[in-house]
Amino acid sequence: MTSFSPALLPDTLTSALEKVLGPGGLLTQPEDTAAFLTDWRGMFHGKACAVARPANTEGCAETVRLCAEHGIPVVPQGGNTSMVGGATPDDSGRALVIVTSRMNRVREIDPVDNTMSIDAGVTLKAAQDAALDAGLMLPLSISSEGSAEIGGVLATNAGGNNTVRYGNARELVLGLEAVLPDGRVLNLMRKLRKDNTGYALRQLLIGSEGTLAIITGAILQLQPKPKSIETALCAVADARAALKLFAAFRNVEPSAIQAFEFMSGLSMTLVNTLIPDAPLPLANPSPAYVLVELASPRGGDTLRGLMEEVLGKAFEDGLVSDAVLAESEAQRAAFWKLREEHSEAQKRAGTSVKNDVSVPLSAIPEFIDRATSACKTLVPGIRVAPFGHIGDGNIHFNLVQPEGADGAAFLARDHEIMDTVTAIVRELGGSFSAEHGVGQLKSYMMPEWRGGAELDVMRRIKAAIDPAGMMNPGKMLPKAG
């Protein structure tokens, strides 16, 4: 049950916050705060003394300063799309949730530097659209981009579909603005590609999941808008064939690959059956699929010829059994819908245990085979539905409850199931979190995976910047002892 705890918010603080935040900026009634106290997956339900909605950096900074003065913890929240409970308060009711959605200005687009200066509350989709309107492209793309906000995207160092070409979020950030736990504003908003003056503090904050500061603004690198795009959906036998197809494209023209996505047959079937207007555009179902997209800023590039050349050879070599090329922007969007709706389709199919893991590319087939076998042994009838960014080694190894099973009972075994999967990931030299972060869900894994000196340094950094532990408590770093 979500609720708020008015007794924990002193009248003097309430009055001060209302003055700082203005009309509608401070929410205290249960019907107003409820939406901010549960995560997107419905796994975590918290309580808060109130929800603050600052409209600018100054308002956010003053809100944090006042909370620090009164000993009130703060939980930053953007679009509330976290897969690991990273933006949900605990159930103590002590924390104030700070929502960044009203901080939604695109401050500047510089076509000479190819940069965008932007508020943290702008959704990723709105940022992409603003860049396109200026004839440029923000290459970061994730399934939740219509809701996910820039601040959260950077706080979790999101990866997404185009990582294979442009890198993770941190590779796109030149400058950063953030509010520290004491309310001071850390202004790192510089457009410089080269700035070798001390520690790279922006990189420390990117991926810190709001445990060190609240990101309020950023300067992002943009790219020329592609003038030539070719997209194909291919039927393949398995991940081994998918990797061989990736190598075939990479060996011919690696710079043309913008995205290379893998989808299992079961996961695709869930999309086709549970998502409206998402039919399979191939003649027959396949054990697995690849979505490959090539792009170039040059309008005259013969990407269609390149696509046909590689796929033609792949047909001859038995790597691809069927394929369809997008003949219009609408068809390209339909192909991408098939990829982007996997999480929603799995949600509609029942409860699921999500494993956002990465392994070396060469180990992906072995990982999928071994993890599939282990999970089917652990939970008979479990539906194994992996998909993801196979071009950069990131697989969302998701596991859907057996048909007709009790969802709550299945979810109660999430640690057991995740540990079964990640044990294999660790043997293969991978990571238990590739792009979703640690949050609340996976913090228990940190001592085993990042223990010793590495975890000790993280805790020392946290203690130095946030000595009172007031910034997004309970996330990422496990309790000591």
From TrEMBL:
SUPFAM superfamilies: FAD-binding/transporter-associated domain-like, FAD-linked oxidases, C-terminal domain
Coiled coil: none
PROSITE patterns in UniProt: FAD_PCMH (PS51387)
Keywords, sorted A to Z: FAD, Flavoprotein
InterPro entries: FAD-bd_oxidored_4_C, FAD-bd_PCMH, FAD-bd_PCMH-like_sf, FAD-bd_PCMH_sub1, FAD-bd_PCMH_sub2, FAD-linked_Oxase-like_C, FAD-oxidored/transferase_4, Oxid_FAD_bind_N
Residues in FAD-binding PCMH-type domain copies: 44-225
Keyword Flavoprotein among record annotations: yes
Family named by the database record: Belongs to the FAD-binding oxidoreductase/transferase type 4 family.
Protein name listed in UniProt: FAD-binding protein
Organism: Acetobacter fallax
